[in-house]
Amino acid sequence: MNEESAMGAEREPAGVPSATREEIDLQEVADREYEFGFVTDIEADALPPGLSEEIVAEISRRKEEPEWLLEYRLRAYRHWRTMAEPDWAFIDYPPVDYENIIYYSAPKPKKKLESLDEVDPELLETFQKLGIPLAEQKRLAGVVEEDDTPAAELSGVAVDAVFDSVSVATTFKDKLAELGIVFCSFSEAVKEHPELVRKYLGSVVPHTDNFFAALNAAVFSDGSFCYIPEGVRCPMELSTYFRINAAGTGQFERTLIVAEKGATVSYLEGCTAPMRDENQLHAAVVELVAMEDATIKYSTVQNWYPGDKEGKGGIYNFVTKRGACRGDRAKISWTQVETGSAITWKYPSCLLQGDDSVGEFYSVALTGNRQQADTGTKMVHIGRNTKSTIVSKGISAGRGQNTYRGLVEVKKGAEGARNFSQCDSMLLGDRCGAHTFPYIEVRNPTAKVEHEATTSKIGEDQIFYCNQRGISTEDAVSMIVNGFCKEVFRELPMEFAVEAQKLLAVSLEGSVG
Amino acid sequence: MANARTTRRFGAPAPDEWVESTRRTVERRLAVSPPWLASLREGGRDRFELLGFPTRRDEEWRYSSVKSIVEGPCREPIEAADAGVDISGYRVPALDGVRLVFVDGLYREDLSDREALAPGITVETMTEAIARGEAALERSLAQAPEGEHPFHSLNTACFADGARIHAAAGARQERPIHILCLGGVGGTGASHVRHQIEVETGASISVVEEYRSEGTTFTNAVTQVHVATGGSLVRVKIAQEDLSAHHISFLAVRQEAESHFHDTFFAVGGGTTRNEIEALLDGEEVECTINGLYHLDGDRQVDNHTLLRHAHPNCRSWEMYRGVLDGRSRGVFTGKIHVYEDAQKTDAKQNSNSLLLSAEAEADTRPRLEIHADDVRCTHGATVGELDESSLFYLRSRGIPPVEARHMLVHAFAGEVLDSIEDDLLREELAGRLAASLSRARAEA
Amino acid sequence: MLEVKGLMAEVEGNAILRGLDLTVNAGEVHAIMGPNGSGKSTLAHVLAGREDYEVTGGSVRFEGRDLLELEADERACEGLFLAFQYPVAVPGISNAYFLRTALNAVRKYRGEAEVDAVDFLALVRERMKLVGMDEKFLHRAVNDGFSGGEKKRNEILQMAVLDPKLCILDETDSGLDIDALRTVADGVNQLRSSERGIVVVTHYQRLLDYIVPDHVHVLSEGRIVRSGGKELAQQLEQEGYAWLETSASGAGGGA
Q1: Is residue C226 a part of any domain in this protein?
Q2: Is residue C150 included in any domain, yes or no?
Q3: SS3 of A125, please?
Q4: Cβ neighbour number for residue A328 with a 10 Å cutoff
Q5: Backbone angles phi and psi of B283, in degrees to 5
Q6: Which CA distances in Å does A197 have to A60, A187, B57, B120?
Q7: Strand, helix or coil at A187?
Q8: I need a surface site. Which of A271, A381, A451, B122 has the fewest CB within 10 A?
Q9: Do C71 and B404 touch (CB under 8 A)?
Q10: Chain C residues with CB-CB distance to B400 below 8 A
Q11: ipTM value of the model?
Q12: DSSP class of residue B161?
């Protein structure tokens, strides 16, 4: 399974037939407030734009990587050269000039960091502004640090912060280490745990998988690495916060999470970028490996800069996320709230290899203004009695185009496989689009696969009813949309759920006139 | 309809022998075509050569291989104009009445019957219409569908004949008009047929398009339907060819305001079948029903592709495709509902259900919604699975033995498609053919 | 007619019936009562031969035959009828066709001639009066889109047509208003005869106001913990199940 052609090719362009009726009572389209659009003034150490074997080698050299990793990158680069950008998604954007992208940009450290205290205060302030605490003591307030049972007392969220291409700080590392949990930047993992990285890197998403994954494998600069040893339940949420700052750069992170037998982890991911008129490319790869009885819960709140009202600027988000349930009864659960990016192209997927393994995908995707999203999942049932659930809620506003694309594949040996998919779309306004493209491939008669899809709008009677009870139209819309997304939000960790709801409300502001 | 032609080529270039064979066929056709048709045919030929053949790498062909057609023995049109044939076996009470018979793509006056026509109904052959210089023909034959593929171009280049049915304003014909296409009579090979059905304002007719064949044949059928304001057309297509036959068909429909179209695709034969339907709901208050029922066993496959284009407000469409899959067969359904901007108050329901009767059968389903208007009700549902256990138990708890209980449930599953056919005789006829197909498959299993 | 001894059954590894004894003779009406989760519906389904329920011990004889040996349809042909708590909708099969197929299957099993469409229609029409059903239901798909009351009536109609020896009514009163309940009960009462046994499985006593039982059994944790006459049902109605469980465990040494 890959994303090269994985679910398919829509031959038609995304263009919409022109209106045949006069544009009457066109709703006022929102100016979306993007509150994370500031730029941090920090000196960066960047390579010149463009991509070649030399650039790839230079990235590897600057990161002081071992030979095997350089070879991996070069293999990926050479393969990427042979590939064409996929064109099957329901998205439309001008060609990306891959020779005009800066593939490596790192904030210039004043000196080698020994502790968090030495992180550039500019950086700390940036993350502070974004609401990401990098100071441990703050989170630990009220926690008895000298307690000798750290697992019982650890709370809050451990954060790995990635600024442009480089991880700048990881909190709670030592506390987690006491439980045998490795949580660090990818670069650090390459140095400290090369055997683990080498074993799992590319094992779920091979470098040949698709155009963007190949590009990432060649040039990825940093990301998070997380390893939960056998039988350990990670006592706190692990979180990575991604920030694109520098202009003209692409961001290519790589996340790898391995949960050994019986291990459990919940991982959160957030992203923002400054407001810029140019489009910036983000091509990340996430690989999850869950062994027997392990559970990985991966939650994303994606709020990259979406571009302005006219569709100028914004992040092109081409991401490959895939998890493998390698052992029996393993479980991987993806939850995503996608409100940002000019273009979103991502299909967090599950390979259900172990018997009785479980895959879940819960998604809220909102496209306003000129945003386009083509997102969904792939559930590949390989083991016996594997189960998958897909709940997708797409909200389209303004001139946004929102596509669910998902594959449910039941292989021959997947006796007793079960899937249930529910894909609901909501349209706010009459110039947006909501599309549903599921693919169902069943090769075992004992499988039971059910797919349902609906499309709705917010009824004027609903709004009126709310108004009559004293609720403003904006609040009513937000309330109804939140209700529409409830099944997904309840899968998010509490703090994230609140944040996601707020984000949705902000994104929706003014989208209904 | 706008035809923004893509120049995207398909996965495999047209092999030399196909190019040569097609050129030869077109040469023969040109000799008997008026200039406008000659240039259409040449255009079709050139386009076919440009497009090539689809492969599994072409997204819209991902589940069905045409390799057996491309590499098979059915390249050349058969064209045995006076082959002896007995059609008594194909004449059933449900289809008695007006009948047009085509043998290996060529019209057979001796086997046809055009006596019982109601006033205002014209039934002629494409050749007759062309010879008569029918004005609208040039434009309508030149139309290419949105999902144009090389078989369509091939049809334009090579078709020998077909039926042309016209219902004048207000005309009505009670019994269905039967188009019977027999293949393989004059040997192994291809037949390209092109039919047109025109229903004018307020007219109402029904048409049964039936395909039968003996031995390995390749049928490439294109049917164009136009239903004008307030008109009504019921079409039933019966694909009951030899189990080794290849069948590719394209139905293009354009409906004007307040018109009704009801289509049933019924397949109990054929080795590899591709059934494509494109309907443009080109006016308000249009009603369109697209149903399908297919039973497969052995290595047979049916690939259904439907596209419903809701271009105007206040239209309703219903779609129900059901497949009963046994043996190592493969049933494919790809169906899209496309709601244009401004097509408010669209009400579209699509359902695709596949019943897997064996461990080796495979079902691939791609229901699609593409929606650009907000005040619409569009739903699709898809299921794939075995017979429902609790229904089976319920039947058995009433004393019905397992084999019979399964049998009943299969018929019930299929019956819901047949139930929407209003004509009692026709519905019973199809139910009988389905039962025969199911029992043949059981006997051979 | 029915002799259940030490019956034990599991659902997905959970023991539900834990040694149940019950004897029903022809002409008798037995009520099986008990709190939710006591195993009432399990008993009904096990007797009817539902495959999800695994019998792990005990025996069931029906008219001298080992019932557990038989498939679900064979049990039905032998004369055992289960009126479902949740009758299954079978879209695409008309009620008439369904019922005639079932009747002929049962008749064939008994070595009787099949009934033709005309005789069948006459029979069904007559039996429909019993449950006050409109003839239009014959042409609708089995239970598809039926209201709760219509479904239950349909169950009793099937019972009347198939003429079983032993009828098991699983929570037939659930979801019925008082009029529907009365109609259904009237139908059942008309089917009472000296040759037929009836087992009424119910949580509430109210159905027993209309179908008066000869024997009442209380099921708790998979066993019958108390048996008595119809007055036992009234006692349960007044005092609930709680006292029974405690007294039963006291008397029976732990039920």
Answers
A1: yes
A2: yes
A3: helix
A4: 18
A5: 170, 170
A6: 15, 10, 34, 78
A7: helix
A8: B122
A9: no
A10: 73, 76, 101-102, 105
A11: 0.79
A12: B
Which secondary-structure segment (H or E) carries A427? Answer: strand A418-428
Going residue by residue through chain B, which has 445 residues, state the pLDDT in tens, using 9 for 90 and above.
333 445 568 888 999 999 999 999 999 999 989 999 999 999 999 999 999 999 988 888 888 889 989 998 888 888 777 778 888 888 888 888 899 999 999 999 999 999 889 999 999 999 999 998 887 888 888 887 776 789 999 999 999 999 999 999 999 998 999 999 999 988 889 999 999 999 999 999 999 999 999 889 999 999 999 999 999 999 999 999 999 999 999 999 999 999 999 999 999 999 999 999 999 999 999 999 999 999 999 999 999 999 999 999 999 999 999 999 999 999 999 999 999 988 999 999 999 999 999 999 999 999 999 998 888 888 888 899 999 888 999 999 999 999 899 989 999 999 999 999 999 999 999 999 999 999 999 888 7
**Which domain covers residue C16, as residue numbers?**
2-250
Q: Scanning the structure block, which residue is given the tokens 């309330």?
A: A479
Which helix (H) or strand (E) is B235 found in, with range?
A: strand B232-240
Q: Which of B319, B5, B304 is nearest to B146 (CA)?
A: B5
Within C28-72, strands assigned E span: 29-33, 53-62, 65-66
Q: Which of chain C's residues have a Cβ under 8 Å away from the Cβ of B401?
A: 73, 105
Q: For an interface test with A, which of B284, B355, B383, B384 has the most A Cβ atoms less than 10 Å from its Cβ? A: B384
Tokens encoding A481: 């949309």
DSSP for C74-140? HHHHHTEEEE-SSPPPEEEEEHHHHHHHHHHHHHHHTTPPPPPHHHHHHHHHHHHHHHT--GGGGGS
When scoring B386, B398, B428 by the number of chain C Cβ atoms within 10 A, the one with the most, hence best to mutate, is B398
- Count of structural domains within chain C: 1
Exposure string over C43-57, b if 16+ CB within 10 A, otherwise e? bbbbbbbbeebebee
> How far is the C-alpha of C71 from the C-alpha of A93, rounded, in Å?
63
CATH code of the domain containing C159: 3.40.50.300
**Terminal Cα-to-Cα distance of chain A (whole angstroms):** 44
Helix (H) or strand (E) holding A481: helix A473-484
Q: What are phi and psi of B438, to 5 degrees?
A: -65, -40
Q: Determine the Cα–Cα distance for residues A144 and A167; give it in Å rounded to an integer.
A: 28
Q: What is the pLDDT of residue C98?
A: 84
Which is nearest to A266 in space by CA: A250, A290, A284?
A290
As a whole number of angstroms, the distance between CA B222 and CA C58 comes to: 67
- DSSP helix, strand, coil percent of chain A (3-state; round to 5): 25, 35, 45
Within 13 Å of residue B2, how many CA atoms lie on the same side as its CB? 7
Residue A55 CA to residue A49 CA, distance in Å, equals: 9
Instruction: Give the integer Cα–Cα distance in Å for B29 and B25.
Output: 6
For B408, list phi and psi in degrees, rounded to 5.
-60, -40
Cβ–Cβ gap B383/A450 under 8 Å: yes
What pTM does this model have? 0.81
Beta bridge partners of B399: none
Q: How many CB atoms lie within 10 A of CB B92?
A: 13
Q: Is residue C255 part of a domain?
A: no
Q: Which residue has the tokens 């798909």?
A: C141
- For residue A294, CA distances in Å to A182, A195, A201 come to 16, 21, 19
In a domain, C191, yes or no: yes
β-bridge partners, A436: A404, B369
Cβ partners under 8 Å of residue C83, min gap 6: C152, C155, C156, C158, C159, C167, C168, C169, C170, C172
Find how far residue B231's CA is from the centre of its chain. Answer: 21
Work out the widest C-alpha separation in chain A, in whole angstroms: 72
Count contacts between A and B (CB, < 8 Å). 142
